[in-house]
């Protein structure tokens, strides 16, 4: 019988057990914070603004993500209530985490006097890098993997490193490393966001919609490979529609097993499709209606103070100004 190659427990301190899953989530949050702080400097926002947002947002996203997952698995958790809080064993739904983060962010951002769309634009790459890193917690836990594959497919066809291939051997059977597919898709999306956020065509809110549309495109196809999808029972026409949209992947991949007792439609796949369509519609409507007047690179306005936030001068500019002042004051 094959056992975990990686111990999910990082270390213990007396009665305290620290799991790699929690460390991974912590690193994901830290990376997101650093990226937001760096971009926020361009708009005159202090690091404390994003630190406070993270301190409120991370617990909110984890709680809602867990409630989202438990809600759809209530048939199990109602008989095992003690496991509801055991997030270190996995079971966090990413769309639930996004809902929790956005709900918390909406009230925090409004309380600070800023436009919601302007701030979530700045935070969009942070959310994506958080998902990119956080997926490696699934790798350590040997969870959220896809259907069965041959080892040769992973090592010879996809050329995946052996340490990942070995960890995808679950009880003697190799599986798709869907965590890796999603992590790489997020990395590519992160590069795209970094590029387009410097383009002047981008309006307020559109970087965030680019993020959720990009992520959802990848999630739509990757979710179909998984064997642990949350599901619901829907009409046959919807099942056929989702299958038809996924069909371009059939040449390389086969869909993972979906327990018919839980449903015939994967919830995350259905939500991904709704987000893609809805996101595109919202961007078009906001542009045509004039709701998206501000550009991403416009100065940030604090509506409470009714003034623009002024970004501090760059360090090089400050040095040059000091040198010029010194030369001006020097006696001839």
TrEMBL record:
Residues 310-332 are annotated as: Disordered. A 1,2-diacyl-sn-glycero-3-phospho-(1'-sn-glycerol) binds at residue 135. It holds the Pfam family LGT. It is a multi-pass membrane protein. GO terms for biological process: lipoprotein biosynthetic process. Pathway: Protein modification; lipoprotein biosynthesis (diacylglyceryl transfer). The chain crosses the membrane at residues 20-37, 49-68, 88-109, 116-134, 178-196, 208-225, 267-285. GO terms for cellular component: plasma membrane. It is found in: Cell membrane. Its EC number is 2.5.1.145. The keyword Ribonucleoprotein does not apply. GO terms for molecular function: phosphatidylglycerol-prolipoprotein diacylglyceryl transferase activity. Keywords: Cell membrane, Lipoprotein, Membrane, Transferase, Transmembrane, Transmembrane helix. Belongs to the Lgt family. Catalyzes the transfer of the diacylglyceryl group from phosphatidylglycerol to the sulfhydryl group of the N-terminal cysteine of a prolipoprotein, the first step in the formation of mature lipoproteins. NCBIfam families: lgt. This is Phosphatidylglycerol--prolipoprotein diacylglyceryl transferase.
């Amino acid at each position: 019988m094959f056992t975990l190659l990686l111990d999910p427990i990082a270390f213990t301190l007396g009665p305290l057990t620290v799991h790699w899953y929690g460390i991974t989530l912590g690193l994901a949050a830290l990376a997101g914070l650093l990226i937001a702080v760096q971009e926020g400097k361009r708009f005159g926002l202090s690091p404390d603004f994003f630190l406070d947002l993270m301190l409120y947002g991370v617990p909110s996203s984890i709680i809602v993500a867990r409630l989202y997952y438990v809600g759809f698995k209530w048939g199990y958790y109602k008989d095992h209530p003690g496991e509801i809080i055991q997030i270190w064993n996995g079971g966090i739904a990413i769309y639930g985490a996004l809902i929790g983060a956005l709900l918390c962010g909406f009230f925090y951002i409004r309380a600070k006097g800023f436009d919601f769309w302007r701030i979530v634009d700045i935070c969009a790459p942070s959310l994506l890098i958080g998902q990119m890193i956080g997926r490696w917690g699934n790798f350590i836990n040997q969870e959220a993997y896809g259907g069965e594959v041959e080892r040769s497919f992973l090592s010879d066809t996809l050329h995946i490193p052996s340490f990942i291939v070995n960890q995808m051997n679950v009880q003697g059977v190799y599986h798709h490393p869907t965590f890796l597919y999603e992590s790489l898709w997020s990395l590519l999306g992160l590069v795209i966001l970094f590029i387009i956020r410097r383009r002047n065509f981008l309006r307020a809110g559109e970087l965030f919609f680019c993020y959720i549309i990009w992520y959802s495109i990848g999630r739509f196809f990757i979710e179909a490979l998984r064997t642990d999808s949350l599901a619901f029972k829907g009409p046959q026409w919807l099942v056929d529609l989702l299958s038809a949209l996924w069909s371009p992947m059939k040449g390389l991949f086969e869909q993972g097993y979906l327990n018919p007792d839980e449903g015939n439609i994967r919830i995350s796949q259905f939500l991904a499709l709704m987000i893609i369509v809805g996101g595109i519609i919202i961007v078009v409507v906001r542009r045509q209606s004039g709701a998206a007047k501000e550009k991403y690179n416009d100065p940030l306005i604090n509506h409470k103070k009714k003034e623009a936030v002024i970004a501090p001068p760059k360090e090089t500019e400050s040095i040059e100004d000091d040198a010029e002042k010194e030369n001006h004051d020097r006696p001839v």
